[in-house]
UniProtKB/TrEMBL annotation:
Species for this entry: Thalassorhabdus alkalitolerans
Record protein name field: DUF2243 domain-containing protein
Organism phylogeny: Bacteria, Bacillati, Bacillota, Bacilli, Bacillales
Domain of life of the source: Bacteria
Keywords in alphabetical order: Membrane, Transmembrane, Transmembrane helix
Transmembrane segments: 37-55, 62-85, 97-116
Length: 128
């Protein structure tokens, strides 16, 4: 039961983080390529900090749930919302497609890694 709760808490929390559409940057506009990349670097650093905290202080199932949710929402959001429907982009500069492509590849990797590791954890616990 703990695995189930940890997994879904990780999924729902990451979904909440990915869809903070009304986030404000204290009114500072990011207009140049450097500024936009700086904002993305800051967001990436906060995300990596969250991954570290979820890996270090929570059960493995929570961490796997975070990776699976991150990978799924990154790939699904970018492919469907950004590329197919053109509702919004990661940034509106020329760097958007390259960064989004890298995030889709990374997202697929995170999704696969989280699923494989969680499945391996479940199988290992059955035999002990």
């Amino acid at each position: 039961m703990t695995r189930f709760i940890s997994y879904f808490f990780g999924v729902f929390y990451v979904d909440l983080l990915f869809h903070q559409y009304q986030a404000q940057a204290f009114g500072f506009p990011a207009q140049t390529t450097g500024e936009r990349l700086g904002v993305l670097a800051f967001a990436g650093a906060v995300t990596l900090l969250f991954y570290f905290i979820s890996w270090r202080f929570f059960p493995p199932s929570f961490f796997h749930g975070v990776l699976i949710a991150s990978g799924f929402f990154a790939t699904f959001d970018i492919i469907v919302i950004h590329w197919i429907f053109h509702l919004h982009r990661l940034t509106y500069g020329p760097e958007a497609f390259i960064i989004e492509l890298l995030l889709v590849i990374t997202g697929f990797g995170m999704l696969a890694y989280g699923l494989i590791r969680e499945r391996k954890t479940i199988i290992e616990e059955k035999y002990y």
